[in-house]
Amino acid sequence: MAVPGDLTGAIGKYFEWMRPANMRHMIPERCSGCYGLDMEATRSEPDGLGASADRRSLVLVREAKGWTQRDLAGQAQVNQSTISKAENGLTELKGQTLQAVADALECPVALLTNPAPRSALDVSCLHHRRRASRLTATAKNKIGAVAHLSRLSVENLLAGYYDMPVLVPRVAELDPPDPVTMAAQVRDRLGVAPGPVPNLVASLEAAGVVVFERPLGSTAQDAVSSWPHGPGQLPLLIVNSGLSGDRQRFTIAHELGHVVMHRLPGEDQEAQADLFAASLLAPPEEIRPALTVLTTAQFRRLIELKPVWGMSVAALVRRAYDLDEISDRQYREFQLRLTNLGWKTSEPVDIPAEHPTTLRAVLERRLAAGESVADMARTALMTEHSFRRYFPIPSRPGALTAQNGG
Ligand SMILES: [Zn+2]
H helices within 50-198, ranges in order? Predict the structure, then answer.
């Protein structure tokens, strides 16, 4: 995949968000989940006060807040040394102090006292939209922790209500990934007909890939993904809500590239995931005829192609460049034109975003089985307030019928 040295134009900016500063963020331990992205106070239930906090859970939940030990101590109005000692296993956090910490973290006490499973979980990549964006260590820890906790909540909610076999292939540990071949294999497994992918999210969900759309609390990252190597573990793509359809589709395809190709951190993984995404959405020989003899006088042609392929104009230009349908000079001209048109920040023609349905359907089944939202929040190890904020709560099935029919 040719990568021009000068990526200062619109396309460069566009692709900048696909290139994270830290490609993979390893999380050595796995723990439980509550989200710390909003600051609204919610009291958690006073359960589990006899137990003490699991130190790994405590660290993870604090990091999901983006808080230092000092921040947490301040919010919970406890001594900072107490937090520090608890996280280092030097003291037990329990009773009213534990309750105060849980309240500050907006999570159930049961989450903090839950012994964290010891399996490893890697989060494959973080996306940056802004060129100048540099994640601080705290921000990296935060997105990693949020991803980790999201997986725990999602796995808990799916348990017993979801039995979809995973159909997407996965590169064996020592094989060097070939993104183009891998994308073709994935399309084959997804049963996608030649040409554009009509609904990428639906195809992935039908193949056992879980897509969780939720606010990530920042525009600095678009998605984060993981597929642990433990038995029965699912590929999970967590995607920031509010993305444009073309960006969302490329982001999801990119994350899928990570989970099917990348097991451990390595070089060139961002370029590989980009090439995988482009090849998945627009296989070389299927899109090539549409991009042949492309010139900068043909923006109308690109705008027409955008809804057909569900890819941005910038991504289509890049595709033409990677397939050698335009020269280096033409590519630079395109970048200049895209900049001058203002399309680096906003392109014409909106592509509708795709919305996953798996999680919503599972929650509907739980409701139908008689569970309340509070029950489901407990299963997710979250407060009901946070659960309602981040999960797609369906209206209760049959509620209308019950009201009308008595
Ligand atoms: Zn990536």
Answer: 55-65, 69-76, 80-87, 95-105, 109-113, 137-158, 179-190
Q: How far is the CA of 69 from the centre of ligand 1 (A)?
A: 30
Ligand 1 mean position to 60 CA, how many Å? 22
C-alpha 255 – ligand 1 centre gap (Å): 6
- Give the residue ranges of the chain where pLDDT is below 70: 1-49, 116-135, 173-175, 396-406
CB 118 within 8 A of CB 223: no
- What's residue 72's pLDDT? 97
Neighbours of 26 (CB within 10 A): 12
Q: Give residues with Cβ within 8 angstroms of 149, minimum separation 6.
A: 31, 32, 33, 34, 35, 60, 61, 64
Q: What is the pLDDT of residue 263?
A: 78
Give me ligand 1 centre to Cα 196, in Å. Answer: 22
Q: How far is the CA of 220 from the centre of ligand 1 (A)?
A: 13
Residues, CB within 5 angstroms of ligand 1 (ion):
125, 270, 273
Residue listed under structure tokens 């910490």: 101
CATH superfamily assigned to domain 31-113: lambda repressor-like DNA-binding domains (1.10.260.40)
